[in-house]
Amino acid sequence: MSSSKRSTVIVEQLRKQQMLEALSREKRLDGRDFESYRNFEIEVGIIDKASGSAKVKLGNTEVIAGVKVETGEPFEGLENKGALIMSAEVLPTASPHVEPGPPDEDAIELSRVVDRGIRESEMLDLDKLVLIPGKIVYTVFVDCSIINSDGNLLDATSYAVVAALLTSKFPIYEIKDEQVVDTGKTMPPPITTMPISITAVRIGESVLLDPTTEEEACMDARITMTTQSDGNIVAVQKGFTGPFFFNQIVQFSEIARIKGEEMRSKIKELN
Amino acid sequence: MYNLKELALMDENGKRSDGRGMDELRSIKITVGVVKNADGSAYIEFGKNKIIVAVYGPREVHPKHMALPDRCVLRCRYHMSPFSTDTRKNPAPSRREVEISKVMRESLEPSLILSDYPRAVIDVFVEVLQADGGSRCAGINAASVALADAGINMRDLVSACAAGRLSDNIVLDINDLEDKEGDADMPVAYLPNLEQVTLLQLDGKLTTAQFSECLEKAISGCKSVYEIQKEALMKKYFGNEMELKEEA
After folding, report:
1. Interface probe with A: pick from B170, B201, B216, B220, most Cβ of A within 10 Å
2. Which of A65, A82, B209, B234 allows an S-S link to A164, with CB 3.0 to 4.6 Å?
3. Residue B10 — very low, low, confident or very high, per pLDDT cuts 50/70/90?
4. How many Å is the Cα radius of gyration of chain B?
5. Mean pLDDT value of segment B235-244
6. Which chain A residue's Cα is nearest to B74?
């Protein structure tokens, strides 16, 4: 047991050394430069039974997001707003290291950080999703499944959610004799902005966008920043055990804005 | 003209709902060594937050397979007592608590020299007895002091403080009401001597300029908290000497 652990540590350190050596020559192991994203594909409307859906491929990372719209009671303290509920699950298909079971802390962080970007940007105007104020509101579920995991699940999942919501068609519910009735008609969702997250990892002194699993295994620290259409920042999460300097964070906030705009226009094209 | 919401958060003289100015911290009190059985402990009152932290370790890891051959494992549990909030909190750990436990652990780890204790574990238990906005920052402050109290080898203390935005103003140390009604909340943890940021989260809207102003303000808050942490540790370990010096 402990001898196999020891060899794992040695392999880890060799791999990190190799990575640092490449980075010192301004090269990443997959040939990208520090600020470029991997090949990015989106397919929308792949699940007929969902109100909206999207499959995102970011390199080898593959995520599906599906939107389901129902009615229900509003959240406490938010009586006059529709309810938005998000989840993310790393499926056992995603890698040999995933086992079925309740979400671990990485999966919980993943769904909460993606949720934060959508919620804080007020991408969905929840004020418009109320049927009887205080009693019955639209409940929007956005569920994400990680099919294959090769790093940067945060951005891939958040792009899938944005694309699924953007292209969704919400059922129109009405109240008749105090009962909720599905009219069978649909409407476009009340979208106000497009939150886009940008994630980077720091390995030694180098800051790399869109990390692969290999790069994440060598990272000292990770940072995710979400901007909305007007360029304002709506959510940030620093992850992993290493620190950042003040200047690195401020510099990254510029990159997140510029790169975010680039990714935003790519997702807009699909619509 | 002020609308109702803004008026509640800040009056025309720039005073906040609890009477503080824009750059003013809530009152902070830290006591070191409050849990007898623990290897290190601390109690913090941060505004109305009341949090107790106990550190156990370095000690043997259970389950054994979690042990690492080259360094110590750090575990952290952030938990809110059922009576700590306005409506009773279900005692089972929520998703929020799982996330906070994780970011808290990650904010503390850079301060510790874990390679000094291979194959061992350090457990940090953070129990929120009363919550008042900013409990993760308050918890980190107490945890770092408790780790020092436990005699763990450290590079620096970790000091944490939030800053945020109330309409056009960037303010220090967001309280519960400001967290709920305000426009942005950014908790930050900082290594004051190494000048590194170890926790950074944000929810709410900020322009890029506001973002760096907010980060800068939070860091200045961390530096003030650092002085209080140091004082609390000095009081436990050099208490009598300090009194003697004052007398002299």
Report:
1. B201
2. A65
3. confident
4. 19
5. 76
6. A241
- A6 domain residue, yes or no: no
For A24-56, b/e burial (b = at least 16 CB within 10 A) is eeeebeeebeeeebbebebebeebeebbbbbbb
Do A64 and A53 form a contact (C-beta atoms < 8 A)?
Answer: yes
Q: Tell me the chain A residues in contact with residue B168 when contact means C-beta distances shorter than 8 Å.
A: none
Partners of B98 on chain A (C-beta within 8 Å) are: 105, 108
Task: Choose the closest CB to B196 out of A5, A244, A253.
Answer: A244
Instruction: Give the pLDDT score at A97.
Output: 79
Domain containing residue A124: CATH number: 3.30.230.70
Element (H, E) at B144: helix B135-149
Residue A240 belongs to what domain range? 31-270
Q: Is B98 on the interface with A (CB under 8 A)?
A: yes
B219 touching chain A per CB within 8 A: yes
Is B199 close to A109, i.e. CB distance below 8 A?
Answer: no
Concatenated DSSP letters of B36-85: TTSSEEEEEEETTEEEEEEEEEEEE-SSGGG--SSS-EEEEEEEE-TTSS
Do B163 and B174 contact (CB within 8 A), yes or no? yes
- Nearest residue of chain A to residue B99 (CA atoms): A109
Contact criterion met (CB < 8 Å) for B203 and A234: yes
Nearest residue of B to residue A10, measured between CA atoms? B70
What rounded mean pLDDT belongs to chain A?
92
- Minimal-distance CA residue of chain B relative to A116: B203
pTM tops 0.90, yes or no: no
User: Domains of chain B (ranges plus CATH)?
Assistant: 24-240 (3.30.230.70)
Reading the block at residue A209, the tokens are 């966008």
Quick check: A118 pLDDT over 70? yes
> For residues B68 and B61, what is the distance between their CA atoms, to the nearest angstrom?
9
A10 occurs within a structural domain: no
**Quick one: A202 exposed, middle or buried, by C-beta within 10 A (0-12, 13-18, 19+)?**
buried
A235 with A117: CB under 8 angstroms? yes
Q: Which residues contact B205 (CB under 8 A, 6 or more apart)?
A: A120, A121, A228, A232, A233, A234, B165, B183, B184
Structure tokens at B63: 């389950």
Specify if A7 maps to a domain. Answer: no
Question: CA separation (Å) from A176 to A25, A137, A139, A173?
Answer: 68, 14, 18, 10
- Measured in residues, chain A has a length of 271
**A57 vs chain B: nearest CA distance in angstroms?**
26
Quickly tell me which residue has 């909206």 as its tokens.
Answer: A52
Q: How many structural domains does chain A have?
A: 1
